[in-house]
Every structure is written in C-alpha cells, then in structure tokens.
Specification:
The structure holds 2 protein chains of 2 kinds. Chain A is α+β, with helices and mostly antiparallel strands. Helices cover about 40% and strands about 35% of the residues of chain A. Chain B folds into 3 domains: about 180 residues, Thiamin diphosphate (ThDP)-binding fold, Pyr/PP domains (Rossmann fold, 3-Layer(aba) Sandwich); about 160 residues, Rossmann fold (3-Layer(aba) Sandwich); about 170 residues, Thiamin diphosphate (ThDP)-binding fold, Pyr/PP domains (Rossmann fold, 3-Layer(aba) Sandwich). The interface between A and B is medium-sized, with 23 and 22 residues.
C-alpha cells in the first residue's frame, strides 16, 4: 500500500500531558509525525491538534481510533488534502546587502506574495504563507540568489471543506447524553 | 453526596473510597504515602487492607480480586520503586481489561521535577498503559479525581487508572464534598447502538447454514452469561471461547465446543475456517486466537460485537460491526433470530473431538503408565472440587493445560494473565480471587518457574490466613520455552532447565501445609488432603520433564495448521 499524506485533527481537553498521550500512540506504531500544530480552538477550554503524517489509510484509521479512545480526547478524525483547506507559514531571514544587490526585489515580492516583517541594515525577514511546495519554492529561490540565514516553517493548520462542524455536533450529542444520565 | 469539614487529604481519600464501595485494598506502605496509611489506621473497619510482600504482588492480587468480584480492584503503594513495581500489573490490567484504581504516593508538589528522593514520573510512565493517569497536586482535587478514577476504571471497557498522590495534598486540610462521577464530556464509555447493524447481524445469522460464535471476556465483564446462552440456544449456534472467555459458558453446555487458538481444541480452530458466519462476541481477535490473519476465516461473513470502537477492524474487518454492551446488544439480536437447529453442522464437530481425544487427550488426561502428566493433575483437581473451583493460573504450559482440562460449572471462574502473559501472576492473583470469593475453593496452578517469581507472597497468605490451594506442576523446566526450543530451535535448551528448592520446606517455613507427589498412586490422596478444609495448601506434583502442550498452531501460521504431536 502506498503512503499518502494524511491530516489528523484532534480536539482535546486542555490538560497536562495531553500531547504526550497523543504522540506515544504514534511512537508505539513507529509512525513519524511530519508536522504538528496545537492551539486553543474556537470553543473555550478545548484545544485543537493538527497532525500530518505519511502513512497508509489503514494505519491512520487505527491511530485515529486509538487517539479517540483516550479519555481526555473529545474527537479525532482524519482527512486527505482533497477534503481540506490548509496553510503553512514560513519565515526567511536574508542579508540586507545581498538582497539590495539582487536588484529585482519588487518582482520577488509580487511573485511570492511576500510580507516584509523586519528590515534593518544587516537583515530582512520575509513572511510567506502557502502550501509546503510554495514556501519551499521560495526557500530554494532565495538560497540560490542571496542565501538564507535562517528559515522556519510552521506546522499545518487546516479546516475541512464540508459544511458539518464535527465538534459542535458531538458536543450537542454529549449534552443530550448528559441529560439522559 | 457527602460533605465533611476540615479533614486532611489522606482522610478525604479514605472517605472517597468508602463512598465508591471499596472494602478491600492491596498495598504496601512507604515514605511518600505515609499520611494515607496513617488515615487508613482509623478506617480498619470499613477498609480491609492486605499487606503483600511486594508491590507487584499487590497489583496481581487486586487484579484477581477485580476479576472474580466484578468490582474495581484497589492498590495503594508509595512513590518511586513502589510505583515502578506496579507497572507490570498495570500493563497486565490494561491488556486484560481489568478495572483497577492504583494509588501511588508522590513527593510533595514543591519537589516535583527535582529528582527528589523516591521521585519518579509516574504519570509519564503510566500514560501509555492506563485508561487515565492523573497527578493529584492539591487536596481540593481529591474528591473529583477519585470519583472520576472509579468511573473511568469500571465503565465501558474496564481498565486501570493511576492516581499519583503528592504528599502535600495528603496532608493539607480541606472541606470535603463528594459527588460520584457519572459523565465526562470527552468520554463515551458505551457507544451508541446502531439498530441497522443489529438487524444486519440478525439477518446474517438467520441466513447462515454454518454459524459459529467466538466468546470473549466481554461477555464476562458485561455479566451477560445468561444473555449469551439464550442467544446461542435460540438459533442453536455452536460456540467456542478465548482464554479470557473461559467459564462464560459451562463446560457441559452442549453448544460449548471448546477452547480457541494456539493450544485450543481442534474442532473450533478447524471450524473457524469452515463456518459461513463468524460471530465474535466481546473478543479482540488476538494473534494467539487467529494465527495468520491472511488465512483467517476468509470464507465467512464476520459479525463483531464489542464495546470498544477501536477494536472494530483492528485485526479482522467485520461485515457487521455491532458496537455496544453485549448485555444489551445480544438480547436485541436474539429477539430477531429464527429458531434453527444446524444439526449436521453441530454434529460435524464430533469427528474432531474424537480425533483430539485419541491423539492428545487420552494420553494427557488418562495415562496409566509413565510419569505424571500436567493434564491429569488439572482434571483430577477440577473433579475433586466438583468443577466448582475458581481456577487461577500462572503463565506457560500450566496455563494452557489448565485452560484445556479444568472444567467450569460457575461463571467468573477463570483468572489468568492472557494479553500480557505475566509469569508470577498466579500466586498473588489467587490471593485476590480468594478475598473476593471466600466461600469458594480457589486453585492456582503454577509452573516451578512462575511460582518462584512471586513466591514471597506466601508471607501474605500466612499472615492473612488466605485459604488458597496452590499446585506447582514441577517439571524442572521453563516448560513452554523448552517446548518451543524442542519444536523450533533444534532442541537447543538454552537456559530453560531449573534447579529448584524444596518447595514444601519453603511452605513449611511460612507455616503452610503441603505435600509433594512423585507417583501417580499418591495423587488422589494428596488432592483430597489439599481440599479437605479451607486452609492454604501447597501441592507440588513432579510431572514429566518434557511434557508438551498439544494441539498446537505454530505462531503466525494458519489456524487449521494444527500439530497433534503424534
């Protein structure tokens, strides 16, 4: 079976050790996490993890089942790129003198939709958002033309294309369950 | 709900446990749990604490207690090495879905992360092997955490929970307000039942010519033995059991066709690959049951009933997944079943029963010459207890032989380490089993190897007068490993032969009666002597040195690739 890039989305309670609970599930199965991004979700007290990895669908399905099984996890699901709108952010530091010597700065900025975050006599910091391939392409271009002093890329953030907001549905279901109890 | 003003955290823990219905605790005191043990001193009427000789012993005893009673087993130990000594038991309880609450002492919150004396990262270590692991750092959290711990341990698919209890929280004074936990928004213990899947399962069974049911521990955990019987009887479905599903059906129940898996009965394994509908009830298609998954029951439609959604499709992809508690889902399906006989199909098991009897059982259980065999000892003890005893086993040949040849007439009569396969489990687990069912006879079968792994618990038996009947099947070998060496490693017996102590002399040192049997003629009298009263007793039986457990499906091969040893 071919390995595909999958995005796993996890909603969890914000408790100590949650990240460890999730990552050990990957460790045990020898699966390598490509990117990981964690932040508070739209609902107060609930955190959202976005994890990408190359794996078979069977492996991803089982990992998601195991994550979902943890007591402090509200919901976990997976998608391929087709089902998602996603983005990454990258920062590039280049030397000011080399950049000025390049001459075609406007073209570079227009082509790549670059934001300039900082500029001083020694360095310039660019910001670019996009898919992995896009941020990588700019990195390759800059490396070749002026050299990159520092580079950092974030993990992926993603939202599903479908209309359903899975978490709110689930929370609604849980509320009904609580009333029944 | 219950409130108390100005009590210590340690006292709050005591009150919480009493409110959760705890009456027995297995434990071992030490520095970081001393305030709790001090509080326990005043609770000796409500909470019976059993002092084991090692924390691993306390864990397995709590497991044995939980498995026989159906209640949550409780283990109370200190920090550091005590906590790490519980790890084997925690892992064992997770694999075998045993409800436990394990309370470990911890250094005071101010010392956390400083490599303080007997500090260890208990939550970090136990997260992968618990349903929930939580560190109580403030006394205010005790009532909440304990209520949640018991709820999580016993609900849904049961399992172990760890509470790591910082010393400052044990000492601090609080106003205590206890509410049992009945709901956690991120945790759904019993999945919603899908009526379409119930109907699909019933339809598949109604259309089946050769249905076959596999019974796992899910039936035992759900107390659904009666529901299972009604389900099987309505459509006359033959059934077999996994190691942990033992005693869910009585041995003499006509539709009980025996034991599944590597050392299971021939018929059930052969019929797995012959049936047209396979109904898995509260079991998880362990590799010791399935062998090679690529050749496992490929011809059959698979129905899988389980409470844990992560088990669905984990090993075998079902055609009809039925999520839910089998106590509820089984009767729903039964209601939709047509009466059927499947007589020819049921009769077709007989030829394999005859074959297995001739090739294996005759020699193992009814020998007339040669050395004593493991199987004959087990069957004789079973019969001498009128097949009513609780069977506890260690791990290895003793375990497989006991599962094969012990007969069950009552439910919750089998305690064994199935998933983790923990040697040393048998003796302490039997202590817990006897505490849970003092009126029943509890027999533990151990090998000479496993018995010595937790032999120190003889001290617990002595001090608490726990009437456990211990049988060592002594072959002076690590028998199962030796068997594999003979079969698969060219008879190279690498470090499996054991020089053993005089077990009877050891028992005597603990003031425990016992007998050693060397000849077949002595066996019946020795067993009768063992079972004559309710006192602890050690029976050492010297069995054939090179005994083999047959039938055997070699690991990773097709379930019908059965070696009979002839």
């Amino acid at each position: 079976m071919e390995n595909t890039l999958y995005t796993i989305t996890v909603f969890s309670e914000n408790t100590v050790g949650l990240l460890n609970q999730i990552t050990i599930i990957f460790t045990r199965r020898g699966l390598n996490i490509e990117t990981l991004s964690v932040s508070p979700s739209a609902i107060k007290g609930i955190h959202k993890f976005t994890i990408t990895l190359f794996a078979t669908e069977d492996a991803v399905k089982k990992v998601v089942q195991q994550i979902d099984k943890r007591v402090d996890i509200l919901k976990a699901y997976y998608n391929t790129d087709e089902g998602l709108v996603f983005q990454e952010i990258a920062l590039y530091k280049v030397a000011t003198d080399k950049l000025l010597a390049l001459g075609s700065i406007e073209q570079l900025i227009r082509n790549h939709h670059i934001h300039i975050l900082e500029m001083n006599e020694t360095c310039v910091v660019f910001e670019k958002t996009g898919h992995y391939e896009e941020t990588q392409q700019l990195f390759d271009e800059l490396s070749e033309s002026v050299g990159v002093l520092q580079f950092i890329r974030s993990g992926r953030v993603a939202i599903t294309k479908s209309k359903v907001e899975r978490l709110s549905d689930m929370l609604e279901g849980m509320r009904k369950f609580e009333k029944k109890e | 709900m219950e409130t108390k003003t100005k009590i210590t955290g340690a006292q709050a823990l005591m009150h919480s446990m009493v409110l959760e219905g705890v009456d027995t605790i297995f434990g071992y005191p030490g520095g970081a749990i001393m305030p709790v043990f001090d509080a326990l001193y005043d609770f000796d009427k409500q909470l019976n604490h059993i002092l084991t000789r090692h924390e691993q012993g306390a864990m397995h005893a709590a497991q044995g207690y939980a498995r026989v009673s159906g209640k949550v087993g409780v283990c109370l130990v200190t920090s550091g090495p005590a906590a790490t000594n519980t790890i084997t038991g925690i892992g064992d309880a997770l694999m075998d879905s045993t409800p436990l609450v394990v309370i470990t002492g911890q250094v005071g919150s101010a010392l956390l992360g400083t490599d303080a004396f007997q500090e260890i990262d208990v939550v970090g270590i136990t997260q992968p092997i618990t349903k929930w692991a939580y560190q109580i750092r403030r006394a205010e959290d005790i009532a909440w955490a304990v209520a949640r711990a018991f709820y999580i341990a016993r609900s849904g698919r049961p399992g172990p929970v760890v509470l790591d209890f910082a010393k400052n929280a044990q000492l601090a004074e609080i106003d205590f307000d206890y509410k049992p936990c009945t709901f956690i928004r991120s945790y759904m213990p019993i999945p919603e039942v899908n009526p379409d899947q119930l109907a699909l399962a019933a339809q598949l069974i109604n259309q089946a010519q050769k249905p076959f049911a596999l019974v796992g521990q899910g039936v035992v955990l759900a107390n659904a033995e009666t529901e299972l019987k009604e389900f099987l009887e309505k459509a006359n479905i033959p059934a077999a059991w996994t190691l942990l599903g033992a005693s869910a059906m009585a041995t003499d129940f006509p539709l009980n066709k025996g034991f599944l898996g590597m050392h299971g009965n021939v018929g059930p394994n052969m019929k797995t690959n012959e049936c047209d509908v396979l109904i898995a009830i509260g079991m998880r298609f362990d590799d010791r049951v399935t062998g090679d998954l690529n050749t496992y029951a490929k011809q059959a439609k698979i129905i899988h009933l389980d409470i844990d959604p992560s088990e669905i499709g984990k090993n075998v992809k079902p055609d009809a997944p039925v999520l839910g508690n089998v106590k509820e889902t089984l009767p729903e399906i039964t209601q939709m079943l047509h009466h059927a006989t499947h007589q020819a199909w049921i009769n077709s098991f007989t030829e394999f029963e005859v074959l297995e009897f001739d090739k294996v059982i005759q020699r193992e259980v009814h020998p007339t010459t040669g050395e004593i065999t493991m199987g004959e000892v087990i069957r004789k003890v079973s019969e001498a207890s009128e097949n009513k005893a609780v069977l506890v086993t260690d791990v290895g040949q003793n375990q497989m032989m006991a599962a094969r040849y012990f007969n069950f007439s009552e439910k919750r009569s089998m305690v064994t380490s199935g998933g983790l396969g923990t040697m040393g489990f048998g003796l302490p687990a039997a202590i817990g089993a006897k505490m849970a069912a003092p009126q029943r006879t509890v027999c533990t079968f151990c090998g000479d190897g496993g018995f010595q792994m937790t032999i120190q618990e003889l001290g617990t038996i002595m001090q608490e007068h726990i009437g456990v009947k211990m049988i060592i099947l002594n072959n002076h070998f690590l028998g199962m490993v030796r068997q594999w060496q003979e079969m698969f490693f060219d008879e190279r017996y690498s470090f499996t032969e054991m020089q053993n102590p005089d077990f009877i002399a050891i028992a005597k040192a603990y003031r425990i009666d016992g007998t050693e049997v060397r000849k077949r003629e002595e066996l019946d009298a020795a067993i009768a002597d063992m079972l004559k009263d309710d006192k602890p007793y050690l029976l050492v039986v010297n069995v054939e040195k090179k005994g083999m457990v047959y039938p055997m499906v070699p690991a990773g091969t097709c379930v019908t690739n059965i070696l009979l040893g002839d």
